Amino acid sequence: MFENIRLSFQGIWSHKMRSFLTMLGIIIGIAAIIAIVSTITGTNEQIKQNLIGAGDNNVTVQLHMGDSTYEMEYNGIPEGVPVITGDVLAEIRAVDEVKDAALYVSREAYNTVYHQNTGLSGGKLYGVEKEYFDVCNYLVRSGRVFDDGDISGFRKVAVLDEDSAEALFLGENPVGKTIEVLAEPYVVIGVVEKSDKFEPVINTMEDYYMYAQRGSGTVFVPYVAWPGLYGYDEPQKLVLTVNKTEDMTAAGKKSADILNSYLSVTDKNLRYEAIDLLKQAKDIQDLSRSTNTMLIWIAGISLLVGGIGVMNIMLVSVTERTQEIGLKKAIGARKSKILGQFLTEAAVLTSLGGLLGVIVGIILAEVISKLTGTLVAISPPAAVGAVVFSMVIGIVFGLLPSYKAANLNPIDALRHE
User: Fold this and answer.
1) Sign of CA dihedral 319, 324, 327, 328
2) CB-based burial label for 38 (10 Å; 0-12, 13-18, 19+)
3) Model-level pTM?
4) Count of CB atoms situated within 10 Å of the CB of 83
5) CA-closest candidate to residue 243, choices 135, 164, 83, 91
6) How does pLDDT run across 49-92, given as a tens digit for each residue?
7) Low-confidence ranges of the chain (pLDDT < 70)
8) Which pairs count as long-range contacts for 37-40, CB under 8 Å and 24+ apart, including other chains?
């Protein structure tokens, strides 16, 4: 085997230009496939990050009416939907995929929150439990978050995120100062920020507006203060955190099923559902993948062309080396030895083409990334598979020339001019 490989490299080196042109089809095909696979992988990761974020693994479960979320401020309190109790929350926290969970309520903050003459426009007002900040991976930047005393004492205190603090206080430290929430004074006790800073890739104006809407600022007040602001208790929303991103769908579905088991509504369109960002990401990824699979098949045509080129050159090589083959057979070389030599030469030739194709494909993927701003992710299994596949092409398309060489009559071969 090693002797056959040595002879193969010697033959390739003896005809460098011919060997390179033979490998060209393989190089182009493998390079195209590597570049496409790398772009698909990078694009799928970008889609996942744009929808889910940088791995915070949070799932939101809330009431839906049909295909839309149920809005308390427009539709009022629904009948047959109880407030989520501590026992129900404990049942949800016991779900295998759930790491922790917290309840909250929310409203759009239009004409709701003010500091002096400055209002929070386009933000959100949240009524939360003190555990909410840990579940959603918030870190305290200054001051503190809610404690047991704030909850039991029904204190009118508030926590701001970075965006709302900047919007309301224009760079000043807000801790200890007073804001108005629905004309009620609330003392700011802290400012928080997300532990994992994440900014999605923004390629279009739609991406920009989506992200701008998500990042326009949030004011948090204790959940126990919510009835004082809006005059009634209301069914809460639920936010979960899971250990692995892959568990998000299962955790959301199981939690929604638990909450739905406590409903006594007559309208079956009213139910709890998880906002399954992971499923949305996968649906878009599947669409992207199916489209790009067609490109991979098209790129595979060049591999077929490259394989035919290998067969052609190997047939030429057999003709050129007819006397050499006859001499080997005359001194006792078996058919299997001749067959192995030519198959090895074909496999080495295409494997070299595969290696060069992988290198060119990686370079091409990086160039595409720089020109288009698309993420790329090099897949080691795809690279290894490409080289192995190119070797298989060499063996398959080298069979006919190798078989022809192995079956030459030694006397006719020695007489060949």
Assistant:
1) negative
2) buried
3) 0.58
4) 11
5) 135
6) 555 554 567 888 989 888 788 888 788 888 889 999 999 999 99
7) 1-4, 7-9, 11-12, 43-56, 196-216, 276-296, 298-300, 302, 315, 317-333, 335, 338-339, 373-375, 400-417
8) 37/296, 37/379, 37/382, 38/361, 38/362, 38/365, 38/376, 38/377, 38/378, 38/379, 38/382, 39/292, 39/365, 39/368, 39/369, 39/374, 39/376, 40/288, 40/289, 40/292
Phi and psi, residue 160, nearest 5°: -110, 150
- In whole angstroms, what is the distance from residue 376 CA to residue 366 CA? 7
Listed residue (241, 42, 7) closest to 137, CA to CA:
241
Contact 234, 83 (CB under 8 A): yes
DSSP reduced 3-state for 224:
helix
The CA distance from 187 to 381, in Å, is: 56
Q: Could you count the other beta carbons within 10 Å of the beta carbon of residue 416? A: 13
Neighbouring C-alpha atoms within 13 Å toward the C-beta of 29:
26
pLDDT of residue 223: 92
Question: How far, rounded to the nearest angstrom, does the alpha carbon of residue 354 sit from its chain's CA centroid?
Answer: 27
Contact criterion met (CB below 8 Å) for 360 and 27:
yes
- Domain chopping of the chain, boundaries: 2-50+283-415, 100-236
Q: Is 73 exposed, middle or buried (0-12, 13-18, 19+ CB in 10 A)?
A: exposed
pLDDT tens-digit map of 311-332: 777 767 666 666 666 666 666 6
Taking 3-state DSSP, the helix, strand and coil percentages for the chain, each rounded to the nearest 5, stand at: 55, 20, 25
| Burial bucket for residue 13 (CB in 10 Å: 0-12, 13-18, 19+) | exposed
Task: Name beta bridge partners: 398.
Answer: none
Measured CA to CA, the distance from residue 92 to residue 86 in angstroms comes to: 10
Q: Residue 215 is encoded by which pair of tokens?
A: 């990042």
With CA atoms as reference, report the closest residue to 222 among 144, 158, 133: 158
Q: Return the residue matching tokens 């503190």.
A: 144
